[in-house]
Amino acid sequence: MIWTGEHRGFAVRSFLENGRSVIATQRVMRLRFHIPRHVSVPDGKTIKRWVSSLEETGSTELSEQTNLGEIWFQQDGATAHTARISMAKLRQMFPTRLVSLRGDLGWPARSPDLSICDFFLWGYLKEKVFKHRPHTLQELKRRIIEEVNAIPIQMCQNAARSFQNRLHQCIATGGRHLADIVFKR
């Protein structure tokens, strides 16, 4: 079986919530994902590797060799994103490179959406994915993956250029809203 990010994340959370018990984690995985008895679940070594990867890199998918020294972590100012335990881990992983409410570099109130995901990707995907109204979580995930894979290279290049233009405009206006870019005619 191929373990998705959802499986890995669930296994790590279950492992930590169940006193680091491999057997308890395997049981709840079977229940949660309806895995029959004849299909194997991740073994203890695999689950512990996922936990180690999360603790070292912040992801169950990033390589342990990933150098986080040059990476900044950014999240918006939503209070739901700033639980103490989460912020402590993020500060440990991204010292002096955490852009967030209560982070090293604060997320300015009503700041313009500068990142490509914020000003382009989320809206684009929402429009494409919900055009045919997925009925199940699995169908939703499949549609998201299909639509991301179908984004033309030229569209990505245009979004990257727009990102650079937004950065320059943001600097030029002292961080104020980017009405002439957002509402360009």
UniProtKB/TrEMBL annotation:
- GO molecular function terms listed in the Swiss-Prot or TrEMBL record: nucleic acid binding
A UniProt-annotated Pfam family: DUF4817
The cross-references to InterPro entries, in alphabetical order and at most eight, read: DUF4817, RNaseH_sf
Q: Domain of life here? A: Eukaryota
Q: In what residue span(s) does the DUF4817 domain sit?
A: 4-61
Coiled-coil residue windows: none
Q: Which PANTHER family match?
A: HTH PSQ-TYPE DOMAIN-CONTAINING PROTEIN, TRANSPOSABLE ELEMENT TC3 TRANSPOSASE-LIKE PROTEIN
Q: What is this protein called?
A: Uncharacterized protein LOC106740582
Query: Which species is this record about?
Result: Dinoponera quadriceps (South American ant)
Taxonomic lineage is: Eukaryota, Metazoa, Ecdysozoa, Arthropoda, Hexapoda
Gene symbol here is LOC106740582
